[in-house]
Amino acid sequence: MYEFQSPISRPSAHEFHLRARREQAVAISSLARHAVNTFATWIARLAHNGASLARRLSAARRLHRDIRALRTLRDRELADMGLPRSEIEYQVRHGRAFAVDRHHIAESNGEQPERKRRTVRDAWRINR
Predict the structure, then answer these.
(1) Which of 23, 24, 101, 119 is buried deepest, with most CB atoms within 10 A?
(2) Cα(128)–Cα(90) distance, integer angstroms
(3) How far is residue 120's CA from residue 73's CA, in Å, rounded to a whole number?
(4) Is the Cβ–Cβ distance between 80 and 88 less than 8 Å?
């Protein structure tokens, strides 16, 4: 346990006791530091996962709100946007593709490119 230079300089029982208490305190503080660091890491992960869950729930609420709002529109208004009633949910969740390929092809042929179409979600947010 303890090594000494010579057998003559052996410490007393009291010195052994003090040295053992110091080493015990160092070991306990090391374990406590490790426990606190582990707990802090766990709390940080819990907070990160909670924030991620809140963002996903907020996005889901926003999608449902947009779907409900589009369902309140009349068929004529939906037709003006080029959206059949049966595709409302799909288009809000996935959006519509921009006409990028047609745009680039028209530019390369020297033609006037057509305007890019916006997604239904973009059109809805702009009109709000």
Answers:
(1) 119
(2) 20
(3) 13
(4) no
The residue type of 39 is: F
Round to whole Å and give the CA distance between 111 and 47.
54
Q: For residue 16, what pLDDT band results from cuts at 50, 70 and 90? A: confident
Calpha distance 101→126 (Å, rounded): 24
SS (H, E, C) 7-27: HHHCCCHHHHHHHHHHHHHHH
pLDDT tens digits, one per residue of 35-83: 999 999 999 999 999 999 999 999 999 999 999 999 999 999 988 888 8
What is the C-alpha separation between 44 and 21, in angstroms, rounded? 34
The answer to whether the CB of 91 falls within 8 A of the CB of 120 is yes
Q: Which of 67, 124, 120, 128 is nearest to 98 (CA)?
A: 120
pLDDT in the model for residue 108 = 56
To the nearest 10 degrees (0 to 180), the angle between helices 120-127 and 13-71 is 90
Domain ranges across the chain: 10-72, 74-128
